[in-house]
């Protein structure tokens, strides 16, 4: 059994996490996209707005990930593998 000491409690609290609400709330605001025009490639606005919401979700998730990820040396130090990689 590995000798593991509980490290400092990790906090995932970041203000960047609030950005994840955006791709959930915006598609619920139907008055923003409940219309036919303008059309893009023959598709009504309603349909291509749905695809835009997918891009919004991907963009927000990627941005939050990039802004909240921990540096690799911090991850290694917390998991106790820093000494193994330095040897």
What does this structure look like?
The chain is mainly alpha-helical and 87 residues long. The protein has a domain at 15-33 and 43-68. Helices cover 47% and strands 0% of the residues. It contains four helices and no strands. It has helices at 22-25, 45-68, 72-79, 82-86. It is elongated and about 60 Å long.
Keywords:
87 residues; mainly alpha; 47% helix; elongated; DUF3311; transmembrane; membrane
Task: Tell me briefly what this model is.
The protein has 87 residues and is mainly alpha-helical.
What gyration radius follows from the Cα positions, in whole Å? 21 Å
Strand content: under 5%
- Write down how many β-strands occur, each being a DSSP E stretch of 2 or more residues: 0
Question: Number of helical segments?
Answer: 4
- Name the poorly predicted regions: none
Summing up helix and strand content along with how strands pair, one would put the structural category as mainly alpha
Order of helices and strands: HHHH
**Percent helix:** 40-55%
Mean pLDDT: 84
Global outline? elongated
Distance between the termini: 22 Å
The major sheet is characterized as: none
Transmembrane segments: 16-33, 45-67
InterPro entries: DUF3311 (IPR021741)
Keywords: Membrane, Transmembrane, Transmembrane helix
């Amino acid at each position: 059994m590995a000798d593991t000491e509980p490290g400092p409690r990790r906090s995932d609290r970041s203000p960047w996490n609030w950005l994840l609400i955006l791709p959930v709330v915006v598609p619920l605001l139907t008055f923003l996209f409940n219309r036919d025009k303008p059309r893009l490639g023959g598709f009504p606005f309603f349909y291509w707005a749905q695809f835009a919401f997918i891009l919004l979700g991907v963009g927000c998730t990627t941005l939050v990930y990039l802004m909240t990820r921990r540096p690799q040396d911090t991850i290694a130090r917390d998991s106790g593998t820093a000494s193994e990689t330095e040897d």
